[in-house]
Amino acid sequence: MKIVYADSLVIGGGLAGLRAAIATRQRGFDTIVLSLIPAKRSHSSAAQGGMQASLAAAIKGEGDNEDVHFADTVRGSDWGCDQTVARMFVNTAPKAARELAMWGVPWSRVKKGPRQAVINAERVTIVEKDDAHGYITGRDFGGTKKWRTCYTADGTGHTMLYAMDNKTIECGIPVHERKEALALIHDGHTCYGAVVRDLITGELIAYLAKATTIATGGYGRLYAITTNAVVSDGIGCALALETGVAPLGNMEAVQFHPTAIVPAGILTTEGCRGDGGLLKDVDGYRFMPDYEPEKKELASRDVVSRRMTEHMRKGKGVPSPYGPHLWLDITLLGKEHIDKNLREVKEICQYFLGIDPVKDYIPVRPTQHYSMGGVRTQLNGESPALRGLFAVGEASCWDMHGFNRLGGNSVAETVVAGMIVGEYIADYCESAALDIPTSVARSFVDRENARINELIGSRAGGNDIYDLKNAMQEIMMDKVGIFRNGPDLQKAVEQLKVLLVRSRNISMRNKTRSSNPELVEAIRVPKMIKLALCVAYGALQRTESRGAHSREDHPERNDRDWLNRTLAYWKNEKDELPALEYEPLDVMRMEIPPGSRGYGAAKIIPHPDSEKRTQEIEEITKSLPGANRFQIQKALMPYEVPEKYKGKNERVGVGHE
Amino acid sequence: MSTKNRGRTLKFHIFRYNPQVEGDRPRMQAFEVEEIPQMTIFIALNQIREKLDRSLQFDFVCRAGICGSCAMIINGRPNLACRTLTSTFKKPQITLMPLPAFELIGDLSVDTGKFNRALSERIGTWVHIGKAQPKDLSRLEETMEPDLADEIYELDRCIECGCCISACGTKRMRSDFLGAMGFMKIARFELDPRDKRTDAEWYEVIGNDEGVFGCMSLMGCEDFCPKDLPHQTKIAYLRRKMIGTALAKK
After folding, report:
1. SS in 3 state form for A530-558?
2. Rounded to 5 degrees, what are φ and ψ at A187?
């Protein structure tokens, strides 16, 4: 048995994984990153529009701070997030943007004086402050009160990932490419690493480590049409699930992005609308103000996606061979702006649609985009059930997004979680001994080897893995999409159960043990079907509508019965359904008790504690006359971050206020 | 939406060789695929793998022209396969070869990762802050002229796909030649005021035949860069700068 040892093993080489790896390496721990692909090719690179950080240098960001960013994030989550985590996040996001500036990200900067912009379909002149000249600027995004999204044109994920991977290389962190983790090595209490398959030679290797971190991104590929990269198949989440002890959180919380192109499903950034782009229907009519008079095209993503779907159901979609779609109109932004700030969008339109968005409308439709759910963690990023198992970024349910993530908060989370959780992983490495019985590792390697032998030796007459995958993706599209209802979800669960059973009897055409794309699918797809069941079954059980989870048969947000987080366990390998448990969110500890989001008008069944907590907050605030915002915040909901990130953030013109 | 090509049968001629399988020999293999509207080579290759040959190796990640995984030689020219529509070929014959100048993994898959990491380590593709101390993250960041930030971004758009390397005549003759990807990265960090490396230090890296003086100016890099990066201008710029540095040294 080949064994590789490390202090810190990070599975996944996107922004979150790399930043966590840098944290443990900088604290002196032997760190290895595993990746399916070269790290710079990770799906983080596809983030276009930007990262939210309340730097407040741009004039339209004036008055922004952690408190405003916090409130936007909580509202965006439809009160489903962990508010403590959201606080840890908003405190650290400005530091993350500034750290990346030091590491080379060429953030777009404030240019003093007047400039033209498009706001609510009007050309307006914005005058930037002299003293803000040269500081990092921000653009408008959905669901935010201020222009807070830092960017480099519409290639933000690319520049962030390149800076991060370059830092990784500077730190001398090895990235073991074309390696796939098949199972976590654990004893039911502690995680000791992973069984890993070399995708070229087929060799199985035991990677043993004090701390194992899952940073494998989201599970968009459970759906037939998604903006996600082909590697976003949720396998990291499945690794945790298959331990039988580590829970996944809120797997039913799946985001649909309003503007992916039709039919390819490739993203066009929210920056299109943030910069002034409009949504139009078959008649060329701008319909969003009718539905959302306040935020219009810039309500949160879940709301805009639902409104678009509603409008298409009224017959206002544009017919196409691939079903109806709507138009995204950015022609009003002008050639100069598009060439400079939306050039990836322009390229995508040219290559995949053969159109020029300077002159032509872009055909778009809401498309699966983001996974709010993932490996459930505590505040320190560690699994509540397995010591030494951590998760960061989209793969995790650290839970700053609740049931809907705001645009720009995803790449921001990757880096911030990498910074914060990375320190906690290093703390764990400091305290833990690398004390792993090789017999445990052996048994896991043997088990995975036996599974592969079974697949390679499979006889004809079994199921085809591609058939199962296609069927799963269609079920998720048709029955677990933007609008959900009980009967369809029930059908989805039953059909997925059948697929799961069938996935236990696979026939392979290609029986090569080394590099073999079919074998890769045969290993992954049964894991993906388990995740699909977590999503569908969780959605079936959650009889309310919250954020991106929208039940036509239960349209109200039910704080009374459902202000909680779903935990999904897969207790026995032979089970056909996850076991669901629920973790309540404590209103009495919230800084902002549940209320209206201010967009996406929905009925709310209130939580009995909401009013009580609101009063309590008023009393606490009154009892602190003359206190500053930090003191009040601390009295309402104290939180901790690692020492090095505790400093108050400085802003242009207001200092460290 | 164009449907004029509906119904064509495309014939793909694909390079096959799996070095992992003992006794396997490089060869070309033909596959037929029914063309559908807006079909890309990404879609076609996945169909071939699913329906016709489960062993076919190729690399796609973002399938949106962003990540740089899928560069290959398409009818003789290096390009990103994911954003190449089959309808752009008048004749229904499409020949696919792996990128030359990179280690072959199998069929159309090459090891760009190993190459790119080595290149990064060779020229230090990160901001060298020199003797400066890392800044306190709660303090305001350093300012930068907005136009300069935009200019750096222009040079930072390389996706390391390898098209420039495989299109480079010099690289094919001289394996230690840095290549356009390396020059573009140097131009990017040389422009960045946060990087404190001096011209003399850059000269040590590229002031030789493996560096800018080896370039034969065939400009395959400029012709085939999928991101339209200004290779020609930047190589010329670095060359002038290095000549100046060399003369100043004497």
Report:
1. HHHHHHHHHHHHCCCCECCEEECCECCEE
2. -120, 20
The answer to whether A524 and A212 have CB atoms below 8 angstroms apart is no
Residue B2 has pLDDT above 70, yes or no: no
| B 62-91 residues with CB < 8 A to A | 62-69, 83-85
List, in sequence order, every residue forming a beta bridge with A326; answer none if it has no partner: A364
Strand ranges inside A419-574, DSSP E: 483-484, 550-551, 557-558, 564-569
Are A106 and B69 within 8 A, CB to CB? Answer: no
Q: How far is CA A227 from the centre of its chain?
A: 12
Structure tokens at A384: 């509540």
Smallest Cβ–Cβ distance between A230 and the set B61, B112, B116 belongs to B61
E strands, A389-531, in order: 389-391, 396-397, 483-484
> Could A46 and B62 be called an inter-chain contact, meaning their C-beta atoms sit closer than 8 Å?
yes
Of B60, B83, B159, the CB nearest to A352: B83
One-letter identity of residue A480: V
**What is the C-alpha separation between B22 and B28, in angstroms, rounded?**
18
**B243 at A interface, C-beta within 8 A:** no
Average pLDDT over residues B64-90: 97
Q: What is the ipTM of this complex?
A: 0.97
* Cα angle value A524/A530/A534 (rounded, 5°): 140
What does the pLDDT look like over A129-158, one tens digit per residue?
999 999 999 999 999 999 999 999 999 999
Q: Six-digit token pair at B194?
A: 């946060």
Nearest CB neighbour to A652, from listed B140, B159, B189:
B140
3-state SS class at A178: coil
pTM: 0.97
CA-based nearest residue in chain A for residue B227: A347
Mutation target vs B (from A19, A102, A361; most B CBs, 10 A cutoff): A102
Q: What is the DSSP string of A595-624?
A: ---SSS---EE--HHHHHHHHHHHHHHHTS
Check A230 against B64: CB less than 8 A apart: no
DSSP per residue, B215-245? -----HHHHH-TT---HHHHHHHHHHHHHHH
| Cβ neighbours of B59 in A, within 8 Å | 37
Average pLDDT on A252-268 reads: 96
Rg (CA), chain A: 24
Phi, psi angles (nearest 5°) of residue A330: -115, 10
Closest CB from B105, B126, B137 relative to A515: B105
Q: Where are the beta strands (DSSP E) in B17-114?
A: 27-34, 71-74, 77-80, 93-97, 104-106, 109-110
Q: Phi first, then psi: what are they for B45, rounded to 5°?
A: -65, -40
Q: Does B140 touch chain A (CB under 8 A)?
A: yes
pLDDT in tens, A107-137: 999 999 999 999 999 999 999 999 999 999 9
3-state SS class at A364: strand
User: pLDDT value at position B3?
Assistant: 46
Report pLDDT digits (tens) over A32-89. 999 999 999 999 999 999 999 999 999 999 999 999 999 999 999 999 999 999 999 9
CA A404, chain centre distance (Å) = 10
